[in-house]
């Protein structure tokens, strides 16, 4: 049973993400570690040049699924505060699409929880990414973690 | 004299996302479907009404009231106004 009580901060936003905003949210005097994952946008796929990415979400369900992931994390690891922010709409190359920050008394729990959070997000949270290429075409991506991908 | 009973139907709100939204040309629609159904039958009813989805129908899952429905033949009960979402392969993160 975890001895620290913490908060879950979930946000879907079209604003640029700031890692400092998330680390500030999860910082706590009772946590000795803050573990962070940042997902950024790459400029190439399959030899094609990606101009930008567009993200779409089933927002109500995405928030529900993210809260479930927070609950699963709290059952398995001793963490304090969890923040998951995902950007929606247009995300220019090299900007962040997702940031996950987790504070924990000890680093092992936080690092393991962050890995679980991004792996599970990619498998279950109803958010979609479309890549727009230099040559003009576009393609909806499919996570390999998603069990109903092509 | 025999009496013919129509299977009870309900109106549900169907939401389309990503590729399914592009193929259908709309983000949402209402659809009359049997109240007692299965995931397989519900998806078939949606594809029947929106045949442009057929090209991706093997890789769609459904959610009802924001909970995933396991693909298959388990019995599912729908209520008027239920929210049914058509969910192509996801790519968050």
From TrEMBL, chain A:
InterPro entries in UniProt: MoaE_sf (IPR036563), MOCS2B_euk (IPR028888), Mopterin_biosynth_MoaE (IPR003448)
Keywords: Cytoplasm, Molybdenum cofactor biosynthesis, Transferase
Enzyme Commission designation: 2.8.1.12
Protein location: Cytoplasm
GO molecular function: molybdopterin synthase activity
Residues given in the record as substrate binding sites: 106-107, 122, 129-131
UniProt catalytic activity: 2 [molybdopterin-synthase sulfur-carrier protein]-C-terminal-Gly-aminoethanethioate + cyclic pyranopterin phosphate + H2O = molybdopterin + 2 [molybdopterin-synthase sulfur-carrier protein]-C-terminal Gly-Gly + 2 H(+)
EC class of the enzyme, as a word: transferase
Assembly and binders: Heterotetramer; composed of 2 small (MOCS2A) and 2 large (MOCS2B) subunits.
Family: Belongs to the MoaE family. MOCS2B subfamily.
Protein name per its UniProtKB record: Molybdopterin synthase catalytic subunit
Organism: Branchiostoma lanceolatum (Common lancelet)
